[in-house]
Amino acid sequence: MLAKIWLNTSIAIEAIANNRFRALLTSLGLIFGVASVISMLSIGKGAEQEIMEQLKILGANNVIVEPVIEQEEGKVIDENEKTKERKRFSPGLSLQDVKTIAATIPNIDFISPEVIYETLVIRSGLKRSIKLVGVKSEYFLSTDIQLAQGNMFSDYQQNNSSPVCIIGSGIKAKFFPKEQPLGKKIKCGNVWLTVIGVVKDRRISEKNISKLGIRDYNMDIYTPISSVILRSKNRSLVTKDDIIKNSRGGNQNNQNIEKNYHQIDRIVIRVEKTEYMSAVANVLNRMITRLHNNVVDFEIILPETLIEQEKRTKGIFNIVLGAIASISLLVGGIGIMNIMLASVMERIREIGIRMAVGATSKDIIMQFLFEAVIIGMTGGLLGIVIGFIFSYGIEKFSGIATIITPFSVFLSLIVSVSVGLVFGILPAKKAAEQDPVVSLRHE
């Protein structure tokens, strides 16, 4: 049996070799179909990888509470019985909200408050505008930020508002290019901070930075949130400087008044399990609304919801691309069948001679099936190579991330062989049905 299979395979290979150009034209549709499949799957995998990176950045189980800077609600009656819009008092997002959430809501791993100030950093005659980020040590867990060297904030440093900081890798490269930053001081605004750690370099695409509303972590300086509020600025308090500014700007429609009265800029709540997120978000909404005197001066963001929505959108996109690639494979299969049918009509005399010297109908079927399968396999291999080239070109010139996996290569090869097999059945059956006597007399 194996000898017969090998014989028919050899005859099929010889027939293809004698008509190389026709075989190439036959497989063109399949080649570009497979190349399309490889390219589309690589785009889909690249999109999936991008989504996973976004999910890792934001945190799969994080619920984020952010302030709304300006909010006006309610009505009052003035002395003329005219209705006017008034602004209800709200303390804004504060550390007290964090304490209340931690004490009230169950199924929470940790809470990470965050406050961000734009300031100047100065050292050794260099200066740059940066973001000074006040956080707790849990912040680094919620964002998956890791240290390259040094230590996290200790409980003592956080509880005592110590003037210490952890710098991003970009800050290290700019202000400490040839020296060890640990233990050195750097001036942020009017405060000197001692460097106790350096964050690992973390490259984030411009697309993710704008889409997810995140910063370039490499150019941030992190310090305990209590240190920022005590030593730099506490927006929830009215200071002497604020009064002076507002009095000077009183005839300018209060343009100098600080509109952001929120003490903190973000609260990240890590929920124990994903299925609790919607319930936690619902309770958070009602609790903070009540704490803020029914003023909705905050918004709750579920990163998982954003990611799922994007995943569905890209899933539909990938299905459309896959359907287009499948049509290419179908066209390639039809091309194989058409050329093989034409080949049968051209080789009727050859079929008759083979049957006259003892070949059976099964042998004829095997010969033409093997021809179709070999053409399909060869087209698949060439298509895989071209698919690699297409994927590289897409990533190089369009900026769309592409990832080619062994599975996509294996799938493309199996599909190309299957297409050759399926669309080779009819020509093979047609060849086997030829009458040997009539075939021998065919010119």
Q: Would you write up a description of this structure?
A:
- By secondary structure, the chain is α+β, with helices and mostly antiparallel strands.
- It folds into two domains: 2-55 and 309-440, no CATH class; 62-248 and 255-302, no CATH class.
- Helices cover 55% and strands 17% of the residues.
- It contains 15 helices and twelve strands.
- It has helices spanning 2-18, 20-58, 95-104, 139-142, 155-159, 169-175, 206-212, 225-232, 240-248, 277-291, 303-346, 348-356, 361-398, 406-432, 436-440; strands at residues 62-67, 75-77, 83-85, 108-123, 126-135, 147-150, 164-167, 185-188, 191-199, 220-224, 266-271, 298-301.
- Strands 4-5-10-7-9-8 form a six-stranded mixed barrel.
- Strand 8 (185-188) and strand 9 form a beta hairpin.
- The chain is elongated.
- 35% of the residues are buried.
- The model is unreliable at 73-77, 79-85 and 250-256 (pLDDT under 50).
Task: Describe the SSE topology.
Layout: H1 2-18, H2 20-58, E1 62-67, E2 75-77, E3 83-85, H3 95-104, E4 108-123, E5 126-135, H4 139-142, E6 147-150, H5 155-159, E7 164-167, H6 169-175, E8 185-188, E9 191-199, H7 206-212, E10 220-224, H8 225-232, H9 240-248, E11 266-271, H10 277-291, E12 298-301, H11 303-346, H12 348-356, H13 361-398, H14 406-432, H15 436-440
Helix pairs in contact: 1-13, 2-11, 2-13, 2-14, 11-13, 11-14, 13-14
